Amino acid sequence: MARHEVTYEVTGPWSLESSREFWEEMAPLPPAGAAGTEGTLRTAFTADADWRRVTAEVGQSGSAARIVVTGDGV
């Protein structure tokens, strides 16, 4: 299983918690625990190239976003 991790400094105001709440409200029926726990946003999707499952998790540390993508379709 492949794993990629990157950290980006976010320009301007950004709140992961606000983003997570928005994500939860827009999802039709997210699987239990899919949105993550407090301080993280998690989601799963299929890769365009081969339709394999990919999982993404976003965390926030100050003004930086940490993004971890794992799966066979990465």
Write the topology of this structure.
Elements: E1 2-9, H1 16-26, E2 40-46, E3 53-61, E4 64-71
Antiparallel strand pairs: 1-4, 2-3, 3-4
Report the C-alpha radius of gyration, rounded. Answer: 13 Å
User: Got a strand count?
Assistant: 4
Mean pLDDT: 83
Assess the beta-strand content as a share of residues.
35-45%
User: Whole-Å distance between the termini?
Assistant: 8 Å
* Count of distinct structural domains: 1
What are the secondary-structure elements, in order, as H or E? EHEEE
Describe the largest sheet.
4 strands, antiparallel
Low-confidence parts lasting 5 or more residues at pLDDT below 50?
Answer: none
Helical amount among residues, as a percent range?
A: 10-25%
| Basic shape | globular
Q: Order of strands across the widest beta sheet? A: 1-4-3-2
Class based on secondary structure composition and strand pairing: mainly beta
